[in-house]
Amino acid sequence: MKKSAIHSRAGLFLTEMIFSILVLALTSAVCIQLFASAKSNQKEARNWNHIEELIISAGEIMEGTDGNPDQFLNLMPEGELSGNNLLYFYDSQWAPCSETNAVWKLTVSLSHASDYKQAVLAFQNADGTLVHQQTIRFPRLTSKKEAN
């Protein structure tokens, strides 16, 4: 009789050990998934921060100038003029690069009217998918000399 009591305690210990290892394995799997998603979220947030910085820079250029491409290129010189558009290419670290090494492409389309100046910024990733598009419009201010 004493022998069966010792045997039942060993079985209980083994069952508890298996259960605790199972819980540990499940918890580890969840933690690994959370860390992996945190890394991808960090990369996505970094990309959105760079997009936001470029939109703010373009807005400040549009506000402070009359919005022509030459003035835009003087203040953001890493771009190139292609028709009515300005093209900017960036690598994976958001450093300006050539078109062949580009991961991101920014197209700035400038337009003018008598009462406003406008820029449409389109961000594309490497495969040409439009990621974000933003329109910036400012009223065209006239000086007293131009009004006369």
What does this entry look like structurally?
The protein has 148 residues and is an alpha+beta fold. Helix content is 50%, strand content 26%. The chain has a five-stranded antiparallel β-sheet, with helices on one face. The relative contact order is 0.10.
Q: What proportion strand?
A: 25-35%
Summing up helix and strand content along with how strands pair, one would put the structural category as: alpha+beta
Numbering strands along the chain, what is their spatial order in the largest sheet?
1-2-3-4-5
Question: Unreliable segments (pLDDT under 50, ≥5 consecutive)?
Answer: none
What is the CA-based Rg, rounded? 29 Å
Q: What does the largest sheet look like?
A: 5 strands, antiparallel
Distance between the termini: 115 Å
- Succession of helices and strands: HHEEEEEH
Secondary structure: helix percent: 40-55%
**Contiguous helical run count:** 3
Number of strands: 5
Q: Taking all residues together, what is the mean pLDDT?
A: 87
List keywords for this structure.
3 helices, elongated, 50% helix, 26% strand, 148 residues, alpha+beta, five-stranded antiparallel β-sheet
Question: What order do the helices and strands come in, and which of them pair?
Answer:
Layout: H1 2-64, H2 69-75, E1 80-82, E2 85-90, E3 104-112, E4 116-125, E5 130-139, H3 144-147
Please give a quick description of this structure.
The chain has one domain (2-147). Helix content is 50%, strand content 26%. The protein contains three helices and five strands, in the order H-H-E-E-E-E-E-H.
